[in-house]
Specification:
By secondary structure, the protein is mainly alpha-helical. It is built from 21 helices and two strands. The N and C termini lie far apart (about 50 Å).
Length: about 525
């Protein structure tokens, strides 16, 4: 077996489970040996990223609409579930984002372990979370997808509940109950899909074929009402994870109370499991229901854009403001999905990547400000450019990216999503979606308002009297190592968006064609 065959047969499996192997190794190391735990976590995540890099290098970018590195083996025969992994143009950017963010979180944690410390438990949870996220983006079987989708729930619950802020127990329980409720409806929908498709497979590509042409498989066409109900269950499961308005209320509390790396992982990767689920599962398998649901998804998306922006203007806590900005920015992603066009779907995936880099970076910065000032109350901050100029300039750069400044990644996460609503997919009302376009465009003005206002109050002027004589350290070496890759990518994607669009376009065009056929 040559190296290419080994990578094809085992690459995805090794990449997904290397972090879990690291977590198991850490169980054998005494709790007191903090440095050993840090090194094991770093080696496991970097090794997983190394395998991922090999997959990126060997990926056929001329066939991004085709599943590659496929593993399709027997798993649980009694329920027809298979161990089915694969990667295409949709999952590749999100896998790459995950493989980048988690090692950077481990590096940042080197000198930023939150109380009550315990590096062993903290890093084990991050590694388990890592495997769950990678597995979700690689799974091509609904049961396997659901298992990985749920694996992330408990580690994040404990990260918030043990290492979080003063109201950590409330926030962690709220996060757990909201997402568990959505997952319960989602698994019911998955089971319904299994039975209406003949009760023989949970494989996502097979289910899409069976429901698109039921006569070929000796099946009856699924009634439209049934499709709407099944899609509704998935909408709840994925929508709560996004989270789309009005299911967003768990997010600000979870972000505000979570430790810094918990907030970074939550914003950069975990929220993307919801939007990814829509594009990977709901739209290809139930395109007819997607056309019926799309105007309502678009409506909730634009409400979320405006509501999230207005909520940001009312915040007094820096971290909570960034959390509400996620509600607004994920609204743009959902709006792109709601258009059901290849342009809109490409914009949605770009929005996921851009939001992951930018908002993850903002949460890193908020954590570092908290470490230095021991508060995130905006009125108590000020003069950051005087006290820690490098930290202040990085905050300014990231805020500009978040508000959608052309030349930075945030622009390509918002502008194409807005533009795609001018010409929505077949079967959708142009008038309705053009109204959504105007409302979303107004949301970008509000975004500029709250981000510039935040930057003005935290970075400009002179330090407040409380911190005027305090020695505030500037960016440290672990912070530079953790942040520079993200800052470089924010700029690189902003200047050359084809880094993402070239990868996603083939698969998004295939999904959009199926939706257009139904809409027409």
């Amino acid at each position: 077996m040559n190296n290419n065959e080994f990578l094809t047969d085992w690459g995805l499996t090794i990449m997904v489970f290397l972090p879990l192997a690291g977590a198991l190794a850490m169980l054998l190391v005494p709790k007191a040996q903090e440095q050993v735990h840090k090194w094991i976590a770093l080696v496991a995540t970097v090794a997983s990223a190394g395998v991922g890099a090999a997959i990126l290098a060997d990926f056929d970018y001329d066939k991004t609409d085709t599943l590659q590195f496929v593993v399709n083996a027997r798993w649980i025969d009694v329920i027809h579930a298979r161990y089915f992994l694969g990667v295409d143009g949709l999952s590749l950017p999100l896998l790459a984002l995950t493989l980048l963010i988690v090692p950077l979180c481990v590096i940042y944690s080197w000198n930023h372990l939150p109380d009550p410390r315990n590096a062993k438990a903290f890093l084990i949870l991050i590694l388990v979370l890592h495997t769950g996220m990678l597995g979700t983006f690689a799974a091509q079987d609904l049961i396997l997808f659901f298992v990985f989708f749920e694996v992330v729930l408990l580690p994040m619950y404990f990260l918030i509940g043990v290492w979080g802020g003063e109201q950590r127990q409330y926030a962690s329980i709220k996060f757990f109950l909201f997402t568990l409720f959505g997952s319960a409806l989602m698994i019911v929908s998955f089971l319904a899909l299994f039975f209406v498709a003949g009760g023989e497979t949970f494989a996502i590509p097979d289910l899409a074929q069976r429901l698109a042409d039921p006569g070929q498989f000796g099946l009856d066409a699924v009634p439209h009402t049934t499709q709407l109900l099944i899609f509704g269950g998935m909408f709840m499961g994925f929508g709560i994870k996004v989270p789309i308005f009005p299911f967003h209320t768990w997010l600000p509390d979870a972000h505000t109370q979570a430790p810094t790396v918990g907030s970074v992982i939550l914003a950069a990767v975990l929220l993307k499991l919801g939007t990814y689920g829509f594009v990977r599962v709901a739209l290809p398998i139930l395109p007819e229901a997607a056309v019926s649901w799309a105007p309502w998804i678009g409506l909730l998306a634009v409400i979320g854009i405006i509501y999230g922006a207005l909520a940001c203007l009312a915040q007094t806590d820096m971290k909570r403001l960034i959390a509400f900005s996620s509600v607004a920015h994920m609204g743009f992603t959902m709006l792109g999905i709601a258009t059901l066009t290849d342009f809109g779907l490409n914009a949605a995936v770009m929005g996921m990547v851009a939001h992951g880099l930018i908002t993850g970076m903002l949460f890193f910065l908020a954590g570092s400000v908290k470490d230095r000032y021991h508060t995130l109350e905006i009125r108590r901050l000020g003069g950051l450019l005087v006290k820690a100029p490098r930290l202040g300039w990085i905050l300014g750069f990231t805020a500009m990216a978040s508000l959608g400044l052309p030349g930075l990644a945030g622009f390509w996460g918002e502008f194409p999503a807005i533009l795609s609503t001018y010409q929505p997919g077949a079967g959708l009302s142009e008038v309705t979606f053009r109204v959504y376009m105007v409302v979303a465009a107004v949301g970008t003005v509000f975004a500029a308002g709250y981000l510039l206002w935040l930057y003005q109050r935290t970075a400009f002027g002179t330090p407040t009297e409380e911190f005027a004589d305090e020695d505030i350290p500037d960016v440290t070496m672990p912070e530079w190592i953790a942040w520079v890759p993200m800052l470089v990518l924010i700029l690189a994607v902003g200047i050359y968006p084809n880094l993402v669009f070239r990868v996603t376009d083939g698969q998004m065009s295939s999904v959009a064609q199926a939706l257009a056929a139904i809409g027409g």
